[in-house]
Amino acid sequence: MPYFSMKKNSHLLLNKKINIYYILYSSCEAPDTPWWFSSCGASGPQGPTQAQCHNAYHNSNVSVTVEKEGPLRGVQIWKVPESKQYMISAYGAAGGKGAKNHNKRSHGVFISAIFKLEKDELLYILVGQQGEDACPGASSQTMQICLGESSEIEEEYKKEKGLTEWAGGGGGGGGATYIFRKKNGAFEPLLIAAGGGGKAYMKYQEGSLDDEFLEQYVNNTAVPGISGRTGAAGGHAFETDDITADGQDGVSFVNPIGEVFLSPLAVIESHGEVIIEVYVNCNHCQSGLCKRAPDTHLPICICQDDTVLASDNISCIGKIYWLCPSFISVLFFSVYHRKKQQLEGARARLQSPEYNLSKIRTSTIMTDYNPNYSFAGKAATLSELKEIPRKNISLLRALGHGAFGEVYKGTVVGITADHSPLQVAIKTLPEICSEQDEMDFLMEALIISKFNHQNIVQCIGVSLQTLPRFILLELMTGGDMKSFLRQNRPRVNQPSTLTMQDLLDIARDIACGCKYLEENHFIHRDIAARNCLLTCTGPGRVAKIGDFGMARDIYRASYYRKGGRAMLPVKWMPPEAFLEGIFTSKTDTWSFGVLLWEIFSLGYMPYPCKTNQEVLEFVTSGGRMDPPKNCPGPVYRIMTQCWQHSPEYRPNFSTILERIKYCTQVRYILIKIQECFMWCSGGHPKKSMSIMNGPLNYSSKLFPHTFSRHLCSRNSCRKVRKLSFSTQ
C-alpha cells in the first residue's frame, strides 16, 4: 500500500494556512461547486456535534450527519450525490506549540487523490483538529512558565535528567484527517492526511550538541518518540524526556484504488479540512489542462502561454505572428473580444494569486533593491529565468526545510536531450506569503541562475506560473557538509572513513567556488558548512556552495537598516561586518577560515561554549579560535590569515587556493596530541607538533583518541568523555 511518510522537521514555513485549492483548479476547472468540510469549530480531543456542523455548514451546499456516540462519535457522514469520479483533498491538522517554543507549528499534511464513487454511497469523514498549545496555562504556576517568569521545568530537567512533576510543556499532536467508507461490512480507508507533531517545550538551540551533551548523541540509535501505532496517523507527542525534542509527524495514506493527484505537502498550520469536487479528466489534452464548457459541461482543452488550441481541439500549436490583409478584420475582432474579456475580468485578476507575480514581472527586480549591486552591471528580470511547466515536475519526497518553505526531491522531464526524467531538488515558496518574501524568493532564483561553476549548485529552472512557486536545483545526494562531517566522526573501535586528503579536497572545492564568486564581484556573506552541499557521500564527492539565502539580502536597499543581530551568523562574521555592516569579498575570506575550522573539527560548532554576544566581544578584543584537535599546522595558518583584523591583510581566494594545494604537498608528520584542549578555561591548547622530513600519509584514517576535556554550559563546566582523532 502506498504510504507517504512526512519526516520530523519537514515543514513548510508559512505565516498562514495555505490554500492549495488553486493548484487543483490549475489543471481541472469544474462548474460544480466543491463540498468543503471542516472541524465545525470543534477543538481538542472531542469531535464536533450535529449542532456545531449544522451551524458551520449553514447556507452552504454541505449536508452531513454526525455520529453522536460510539467509536464513530464526531465523524461526519456525507452521501455521494452522483456516480462520478471525484477528487478528494485532505488536510491534516497542525501540531500544538510548546510553552517556550511558540514561533511556529509543525504543519499538517495536504494530499489529494482521485476516486470513483457511486451515487448514495456514504463517506465517513473525520477532520483532524489542531493539537492544543501548551500555553496559556491553567494555573498561576504554569502561567508564569508561559510568560517566561519561571524556569522550573528547565531546572528540574537539568537536575533530574528527566521530568517527574511536570507533563513536559510540549504541544499536542495534530489530528490526522480520515476519509473512509463501508465495504462488505468493514471500514475501508480511502485517503488519510497526516497530522503535525507537537512542538517541544523549548526550541532546540543549534550548538547544544557541542556545548553540552556532545558524544552521547553520536552513537545514540534512538528514534523520535512515536505512539507505537503503524500506518497513517496524526502527529505524536515526544515520548522521551527531552524538552527540546519535537513530536514526530504522522504518516499519510492513499488507497491503491485511487490515483494520487498531488503528493503529500506539509503546509497546514491550523485545523484540518476536506474538499471533495467532481473531477474533470484532462488526459486527452496535450497540455494536460482543461475546463468545462459553460453550456454543455463538456471538457475543453486549454493551452499555455504562446500556444493556441489546434483545430483538433486537443493539440496546442505556436501562435502565428505574420498577418495578411485578409486577416486584418478577423484580428481586430479578436482583439476587441479579448479586450472586452480582460475588462470584465479585471477585478477577478486583481484578486488572483498571480497578481503579485505579474506586478513584479512588469519591472526589473533591481527596482526595489540596492542599486550599488547588480549582475554584471545589468538589471535582472524574471524573463531570464527558465520556466518549466508544472506538468513536467513530480514531487517524490521531502528532503528538509529552508528559509521559505519545504525542499523536496523530485523529477523533471523535458530537460535532458533524451527527455528522460532528471532528478532535482525543489525549493518551494508558500502560496500565502508577504510580497517581500516573494521578492526574496525570486531574487534567490535570479542569483543562482547567474552562476555557472562546478562548485556552485546549478539552477535547473523555475516554475512560477502555478502555486506554490518552485525553484529547481541540481540534486545533491550527499546532503549538507555539516551533517556529513558529524556523521563521519570516529568512534570507539570504528575509525572515520575520511582521510586528511578528503578534508583538504572539500576545502579546496569550496575555495574554488568562492574564487569564482570573488572574480565576479559577488559577496556570499554566509560561507558555512551548513550551506555547502555534497554530490555524494562516497569517494569522488564534490563540494558545492548551495545556499544563497543571505546573499539575496545584500541586494535589498533596506538591508543596512536592519536592527538586531539574532538573524546574523555572528560566529562566521568578521568584526567590521557585525559592528559596522560592511561587507566585502574579504568578509567571505573570514567566513572561509571558520569553515576550515568546521571541516577539520569534523563539524563542531565554532567558538565552543560561547554565545553570540560572547563571540562578538571575544573577536573584537582580538581573540581567535585555537586549532581543532590534530589540525595540520599549515592549515591552521590559513585560518589565522583569514582571521586578520584588517580586511586588507586577509588573502584573496586565489592565494587561499595556492596555500591549500601547498598543504597537500608539504613534508611533515604530526605527533599525537598528548594533552587535551582546555577550551572553556581560557587557556591555550597544549600541543606537541613536529616538522619532519618524512611525508604525511594523507590516506591515513582518522582513529578515535579518547581523552577528557571540560565543556561549558552557560554557567558551569562539566567533564565528559570526548572522542577526537589522531592519524595512525
Automatic annotation (TrEMBL):
Location in the cell reads: Cell membrane
Keywords (alphabetical) are: ATP-binding, Cell membrane, Disulfide bond, Glycoprotein, Kinase, Membrane, Nucleotide-binding, Phosphoprotein, Receptor, Signal, Transferase, Transmembrane, Transmembrane helix, Tyrosine-protein kinase
**Matching CDD domains:** PTKc_ALK_LTK
Ligand binding (ATP): 427
Catalytic activity field: L-tyrosyl-[protein] + ATP = O-phospho-L-tyrosyl-[protein] + ADP + H(+)
Please give, as recorded in its UniProt entry, the membrane topology of this protein.
Single-pass type I membrane protein
The name on file for this protein is: Tyrosine-protein kinase receptor
Q: Organism source for this protein?
A: Anolis carolinensis (Green anole)
- The UniProt gene name for this protein comes to ltk
